[in-house]
Each structure stands twice: as structure tokens, then as C-alpha cells.
Amino acid sequence: MNRRLIIATHNEGKVREFSEMLSSHFPEILSAKTFSSIAPEETGTTFTENAIIKAKALSHHAGEGTFVLADDSGLCIDALNGEPGLLSARWAEVDCNGKTVLDFPYAMRTILQKMEHVAEKEARKAHFACVLALYTDKDSCQVIEGTVHGTIAFEMRGSLGHGYDPIFVPDGFDCTFAEMDQSIKNKISHRAKAIENVNCRM
Known about the structure:
The longest helix has 13 residues, at 47-59. The protein is 24% helix and 27% strand. The strands form 2 sheets. The protein has a 6-stranded mixed sheet with strand order 2-1-3-6-7-8. The protein has helices at residues 12-22, 47-59, 104-114, 182-188, 190-195, and strands at residues 4-7, 28-31, 66-77, 93-96, 99-102, 125-135, 141-152, 168-170. It is of the alpha/beta class.
């Protein structure tokens, strides 16, 4: 059976990561860009609620035998009382000629400025949280969580990865996610930990 998986995101970095981690389960993996549907408004108050909203919205456009996977994730920083957290993407929003675009370097500069007074590494603790919602054509849904702990770097480092990767140093490593080989990141990231518990036999 040629099972198809649709990733409910327009973020190509996320699509690439999910494709690399799930290619053995799904021979065909597509992004939401394949469809003309407008992304739903993320009105949830938790990562779980937003992941379900995104997966359910796209599942209505998927054909029989198609899986839909959505994630809601964010960077939670202890010294900033858990921010940006649920608003991680919104912290990166900027206006570009009347259109809202994501500018993560801008968001990271904001974070680094807010943390200028936090000099001790121990006080710069943070974690990436991820919640996955996996829908099938039968309207059944799995919800899976994954977390990776680390610290916030003192500057942006590295050109790999996406999002906030250049300022996040996972526990046990001296490099940021953006300096790390993708094959290693795909074993220890918050998404990797969530995917480990995904049941692809639904």
C-alpha cells in the first residue's frame, strides 16, 4: 500500500526533518504547500490544542489512506518565564511591505538582548517542546509529545537547521543545533523524541 503523509506546515525546514525521520514509514511525504487550503488560525492555549487544530484542518483535504501530521512546537526559556513558548513563531513575525513574514534572526536578537544580564550558563536553561498530532482518514488521532533540554547560547552560531537552532545548545553538547550534523540532531531533537513514539500502523 502506497501510504501518503502530508505535513501540515509550510516550513520547509520542518518538512525536511520529518521527511528524513519518517521516510521508512511513508514512501510519499508532502507539505501543506501541495494544497491551496489556508492555514487555520491557531487559537489554542497549548501546543497540543494547536497541533490538533492544524492536523484536523488539513485532514479534510486529504484523500483516503492519507495520514496528516501536524506539530506545534516552541522554545521555552526559564529566565524569560517560559517565553517565547507558544508564541515562538509570532516572536519572529515582522512586516515586509504589508505582508507578515517570519524573521527568526530578528527573534533571536530579541532573545539575546533580553538575556544580556544572564551571565551564568546554569541560569540560561531552556527546552524545546514539541507536540505531534497524527490524523488518518478514519478521523482517529494520536497525540505525542517530545522535549529536549539545553541552554541558550551567548550568540547565534551555525548556519544549519532552522528557527531558533542557532541559539540552542542541547545538554551534553557544546554546539548549537545549527552547528550540528543533521543526522545527530534527528536522533536527539524534540521532534525526534516525539516521532519515536508515533504509531505508523494506524
